[in-house]
Design goal:
- Residues 4-81 form the Trehalase-like N-terminal domain.
- The chain contains 13 helices and 28 strands.
- The protein has two domains: 3-211, Beta-galactosidase, Chain A, domain 5, CATH 2.70.98; 214-579, Alpha/alpha barrel (Glycosyltransferase).
- It starts with 5 loop residues before the first strand and ends with a helix.
- The longest helix has 20 residues, at 194-213.
- By secondary structure, it is of the alpha+beta class.
- Helix 3 (268-280) runs parallel beside helix 5, helix 6 (365-381) runs antiparallel to helix 7 (399-417) and helix 11 packs parallel to helix 13.
Length: 583
């Protein structure tokens, strides 16, 4: 199934992807970074899934409930019409101490017959699932996961074996049936009643709407912004406060290619940008939790590129022996970026701290000390080469990395001047800030290209330099000319490639286009920014509003891991840049 045909469900701990054919094809239980319970997305023949699909030919229309992460799919057949309402349930007091994936079938017209299949995957033959009946309940075991398949009385089991079960249900207008999975890992399970599960679908919907109602944004673009905010909320891992980059692993950046990575970890860049997006829309609690977690990681483990969502080092990358989405291999667990050095982490954390205090908040003395040490480290290391924002194997003096160092030192000086950081090294930070700016002007500008280049000595361009406008780097003339060059060289339809030479290796990086839109808006080109934004949203309007990392510029198909936090937060930043008056 095409990636654009999936919607996302979540509970603050795990995320499931539900397809337009009624099949849950991805769900890691109980946590975002757990091994998958359902993995047909990456293992089409032998992966696990949980499907509820009409037995007749059908048309389907899908949408999220307004300002909610509860998903509705309406199936129309020759004999009738029925709706499946799906939720990763929470309770009235917040996240449940177990995973509860609830699916309610509601009859709307005539009568519709459904086939249900629960297939337990073998996780690349590392586990052998089995089922048993305990206390009258259908219980399944997949490795360390213990789960229940609960159903209302109208659902009839037609087949049961260790690999799963099949069932049928026929529903008429006005009737309702429930099929749900309750699961946990190495823990006893509560067996809720069907009535409790059904009620929690509506409780969860209410909780989502209450959260969304507090988002600060004006019409008419509020629904679009709220949908991205809700996608970002799915990636906030509530047990720790970390923000995952995405909910999946190894969805390819090019079908059949090998650029398939595990994004179920917390990148400083993504977390920092998400915190800023939360602050921008008034989600103060989420921003505070994520910033506290991020500062703790920086203090305990140093400025790494990414961390586990529990904290600490990301596991070393390894391959899993499954075919991959669209036969794109390898499928990976873990990520090699954890051992890279990127100067961008300095700019990301300081920009985040700056936005935090600009929103009227206060840094504690411990956080101020952590930031001061990071500013000193940045001042010492900025002349070194690094792997750059794009985590490249070849270390260079990447222009965006130097701009990030300038950004870190500029924000450090501002924080010190406003009393948020100790001023002992303030003047030293200011001098190094100016040295970085001079170095960039001397080495990274190409008058022949009329642009800042990817790194000194090359004629390649990097679309991420559009972020320099938000960071308030340089005057507007050179940045404007750089944006024009990026539009000439890296644009493909309504999209942009990350940097020069990527046309054959991967799709277009959606965040880059949103960064370009934001940059044009901040430079006063509001009409241009709005036109670009509308064109991009029209191109992406293929599903229910859950966006990936990339898109194929020819076919428009989604590519890369999803929901992709960087895409959604870049949308939020772009949209607010030309809707709200403040930057």
């Amino acid at each position: 199934m095409a990636l654009e045909d999936y919607g996302a469900l979540g509970d603050g701990r795990s995320v499931a992807l539900s397809g337009a054919d009624g099949s849950i094809d991805w769900w890691c239980v109980p946590n975002l970074d757990s091994p998958p319970l359902f993995d047909r997305l990456l293992d089409p023949a032998d992966g696990g899934y949980f499907s509820i699909e009409p037995t007749e030919a059908y048309r389907v229309e899908r949408r999220y409930r307004p300002e909610s992460n509860v998903l509705e799919s309406t199936f129309a057949t020759a004999s009738g019409k029925a709706r499946i309402v799906e939720s990763m349930n929470s309770g009235s007091a917040g996240r449940l101490p177990w995973c509860e994936l609830a699916r309610r079938i509601e009859g709307l017209e005539g009568r519709v017959h459904f086939r249900m299949q629960l297939r337990l995957g073998r996780r690349a033959d590392t586990v052998s699932p089995y089922m048993q009946v305990i206390g009258g309940n259908d219980v399944f075991h997949v490795g360390r996961v213990l789960g229940l398949c609960l159903r209302s009385q109208g659902v009839t089991i037609t087949m049961k074996e260790d690999a799963g079960l099949c069932a049928s249900v026929s529903i008429a207008a006005g009737e309702q049936e429930i099929i749900a999975i309750v699961a946990g890992e190495d823990e006893p399970l509560v067996v809720p009643t069907i009535a409790e599960i059904s009620a929690r679908i509506d409780t969860s919907d209410e909780e989502w709407r209450v959260w969304a109602s507090k988002i600060v944004h004006e019409e008419p673009s509020r629904p679009l912004l709220v949908r991205s905010a809700l996608a970002l909320k799915l990636l906030l891992f509530s047990p720790s406060g970390a923000i995952a980059a995405a909910a999946t692993t190894s969805l390819p950046e090019h079908i059949g290619g090998n650029k398939n990575y595990d994004y179920r970890y917390a990148w400083v860049r993504d977390a920092g940008y998400t915190i800023k997006a939360f602050l921008r829309i008034g989600a103060q609690a989420e921003a505070k939790a994520a910033l506290s977690w991020l500062l703790n990681q920086l203090e305990e483990h140093g400025p790494r590129v990414c961390y586990s969502i529990w904290g600490g080092r990301v596991p070393d990358a390894r391959s899993v022996a499954v075919p991959g989405y669209g036969a794109s291999s390898p499928v990976r667990v873990g990520n090699i970026a954890t051992d890279q050095h990127q100067h961008g982490v300095y700019g990301d954390i300081f920009e985040t701290a700056s936005r935090f205090v600009e929103s009227g908040n206060i840094l504690d003395s411990r956080s101020a000390e952590i930031l001061s040490h990071l500013a000193d480290e940045c001042a010492d290391l900025w002349r070194q080469k690094d792997s750059g924002m794009w985590e490249l194997p070849d270390k260079e003096h990447y222009t965006m990395s130097k701009i990030s160092c300038w950004q870190a030192l500029a924000r450090a000086v501002e924080l010190a001047d406003d009393g948020h950081l100790p001023t002992t090294c303030r003047d030293r930070w200011a001098r190094e800030r100016d040295r970085v700016e001079g170095w960039i002007a001397e080495h990274c500008w190409s008058e022949a290209l009329g642009a800042y280049t990817f790194y000194p000595g090359t004629d390649q361009l990097d679309a991420s330099i559009a972020l320099a406008v938000r960071f308030r780097f340089d005057g507007t003339d050179r940045l404007r000319r750089t944006l024009e060059a990026i539009d000439r060289e890296l644009a493909s339809g309504p999209y942009h490639h990350r940097y020069s030479g990527m046309e054959q290796e991967e799709g277009c990086f959606l965040a880059c286009t949103f960064w370009m839109i934001e940059a044009w808006a901040l430079l006063g080109e509001k009409a241009k920014a709005e036109q670009m934004f509308d064109s991009l949203i029209d191109a992406l309007d293929l599903g229910v509003g859950v966006y990936p990392e990339m898109a194929d510029p020819v076919s428009g198909r989604y590519l890369g891991n999803m929901p992709q936090g960087l895409t959604h937060l870049a949308l939020v930043q772009a949209l607010t840049s030309f809707v709200n008056k403040t930057q």
